[in-house]
Amino acid sequence: MLVTTTSTVEGRPVQEYLGVVNAQSIIGANIFKDLFAGLRDVFGGRSKTYERVLEEAKEDAMRELVERAQSLGANGILGVDLDFETVGAGGSMLMVIATGTAVRL
């Protein structure tokens, strides 16, 4: 499966557009992660804990996006866009939304 943020792939014309696909992943951040991230806010530096959580949510959303495109018979997803948001009480959950156009190249 070819996955790209571009709207075209050089040398591979789109044979068929199969529609927009999207997927989301929502991951809760637990109290220990919040505690250690809060310490990073006070003392400075990057929060590796939250970076890992964001990466996990992104990978989950991308995996689901590919699965949805494959179910349509696609062999590519063009124009992929990733959005990152916090949701829940006090922003306690991290959400990644992946969107793209499923195509047959």
Write the layout of secondary structure elements.
Blueprint: E1 2-3, E2 16-28, H1 31-43, H2 48-71, E3 76-87, E4 93-104
Parallel strand pairs: 1-3
Antiparallel strand pairs: 2-4, 3-4
General description of the model:
The chain has 105 residues and is an alpha+beta fold. It has a single domain, classed as Hypothetical protein apc22750. Chain B (Translation Initiation Factor IF3). It contains 2 helices and 4 strands, in the order ββααββ. A 4-stranded mixed β-sheet has the order 1-3-4-2, covered by helices on one side. Strand 3 (76-87) and strand 4 (93-104) form a beta hairpin. The chain is elongated.
Q: How many discrete structural domains?
A: 1
Question: Helical amount among residues, as a percent range?
Answer: 25-40%
CATH superfamily: Hypothetical protein apc22750. Chain B
Listing every helix as H and every strand as E from the N terminus to the C terminus, the arrangement reads EEHHEE
Q: Globular, elongated, flat, extended or rod-shaped: what is the shape?
A: elongated
Structural class designation: alpha+beta
Spatial strand arrangement across the major sheet: 1-3-4-2
* Extended strand count: 4
At CATH level 2, the architecture is 2-Layer Sandwich
Mean pLDDT: 84
Calculate the terminal CA-CA distance, rounded to whole Å.
10 Å
How many DSSP H or I helices? 2
Fold-level CATH name: Translation Initiation Factor IF3
Rg, alpha carbons:
17 Å
Q: Any low-confidence stretches, pLDDT <50, length ≥5?
A: none
Report the top-level CATH class: Alpha Beta
Beta-strand portion reads 35-45%
